[in-house]
Amino acid sequence: MIGDPATTKVDMEKLLTAIQPKQKLKVFLVTRKADWCEDDAIVVLAVDKLHAERCARCNSDDFRKGKVEVTEVEMNKEKVILTSNRGA
Questions:
Q1: pTM value > 0.85
Q2: Domain-embedded: residue 48
Q3: CA-CA-CA-CA torsion for 14, 19, 25, 28, nearest 10 degrees?
Q4: Three-state secondary-structure class, residue 28
């Protein structure tokens, strides 16, 4: 049978490269006001601010609701971009 997963080997990297358009990823710092022992910052690799916000909201229960601030990180300087959970 053609396309049978048991007999067909697919190189996932080549498949994803062929399907997805070439998009340059950027680094974003997503922050929020947090209570004690909650996530207050997440560093996200994304194509733009909207995708960075969406990724943060999907990957942390603390970011699901409420106001967040998304800041693009300049990649031409050396610096610390995340000091998280400072209140714990």
A1: no
A2: yes
A3: -120
A4: strand
